[in-house]
Each structure stands twice: as C-alpha cells, then as structure tokens.
Design brief:
Helix content: 55-70%
Distance between the termini: 29 Å
Radius of gyration: 17 Å
Strand content: 5-15%
Order of helices and strands: EHEHEEHHHHHH
Number of strands: 4
Bound molecules: glutathione
Strand order of the largest sheet: 2-1-3-4
CATH topology of the largest domain: Glutathione S-transferase Yfyf (Class Pi), Chain A, domain 2
CATH architecture of the largest domain: Up-down Bundle
Number of domains: 2
Largest sheet: 4 strands, mixed
Structural class: alpha+beta
Number of helices: 8
Length: about 210
Amino acid sequence: MLKLWGRLNSINVQKAVLAIEELGLPYERTDAGLQFGVNKSPEYLAMNPNGLVPTLDDDGFILWESNAIVRYLCAKHSAGALWPEDLQIRADADRWMDWQTATLSSAMGAGFMGLVRTPPEKRDAEAINASLAKTTKLVAMLDAHLAQRDYVAGESYSMGDIVLAPIMHRWFNMPCARAESPHAERWYATLMERPACVRVLTLPIT
Ligand SMILES: N[C@@H](CCC(=O)N[C@@H](CS)C(=O)NCC(=O)O)C(=O)O
C-alpha cells in the first residue's frame, strides 16, 4: 500500500493526497512537519534528506518533491487521462505545474505566512502587500489562460489542475482582498464539484 508523510495543511502535501484520492488508491498517511515533527528524525531524513514534506513510499520506492509525486502517480495509474499521452498537452500541464512551484508559490508565500501564520502585531505589512500584488498579477495570468480552455492543459482535467488546485484554494480563501478573476473562479468552482477536491481541500486555511 502507498505510504505518504505530511501534514494536510501543506499545499505540497495536498497535491500528493489529491492525486492519490483522484486515482482511488489505498494509502496510509502519517502527519509530519511543523507541530507534528517526524520530518527531522533520522529515519525520515534517510528517506528525504531535505527534511520537508511530502514523502511517498510506493512499495519501497521512495519519492519526494510534490510535483514529481503527482507526475509519477498519474503516469503509473492514469496514462492518457490525468497524465496526458499527447506530448504537447502533457508539456502544457508540466509547464503550469512548474509555474505553480517556481513562480506562484514563491510570490504567494510571504502573503500567506504573514496573514495566516503570523500574529497581527508581528506582521510585515510591506512584505505582505508586495506578495499580494505579485500574486494578483500571476492569478490574472492564469485567469487569461483559463479564459480560453476549461482546464489548465485544455479540455480535460489533468495533473496540471491537481497541482494548481491547492494553492488556488488557498488564494480564494485567504483573508485578503482579491481582484476578480472570473475564469479562474469558474475553473475552481468546477474543481470543487469533484469529490476528491472536496475531501482534500475543504479545510480551514492554517
Ligand atoms: N519543493 C518541495 C517543497 C516541500 C516543502 O517546502 N514542504 C514544506 C511544507 S509546504 C515543509 O516541509 N515545511 C517544513 C515543515 O512542515 O515542517 C515539494 O514540492 O515537495
């Protein structure tokens, strides 16, 4: 059976759990990271020397990096669907997955940490506002992309949507003002009709 380590309020863990839930695979999840600890133990570091979550164990095959986990599981269990066979459609999904990690997550980090994980008296308003401004521009980019298609890689739900869903759920639920993004909002509402998305993402933003 698949084993996964990571706390559920991490968007990187949520991506992996969402992929597993979409695929309907049996799995065991162990809370790890922040208040749960575990991720700095010698046993955990032997699996994942980064000391970060998530980490997957598929029958002895250990994998870390959330996007790699999503790609691996979708390729193994859903080639031609969640893992598109068409090279260009797959590259499109890959592109948005990498953008999520390298660009959107980096931009949103300070705003999220400041507004959600920092008490009001300790917040750095300048850093939060800069982060929200950057995120707003990036969400507008995603919104323009989704104006032309139902899902991030075209007309079908794919691993690209799985990776973007947790961070966009966080964005739409963070305690801050947001510019309208009607196409991204329509896409998000469609995703939230999926039982796996409801199961994994309907959590307070913490
Ligand atoms: N690029 C890595 C980043 C992993 C990462 O930064 N994980 C965070 C949670 S989102 C973490 O482990 N933080 C330390 C902790 O939770 O104790 C991935 O996508 O898996």
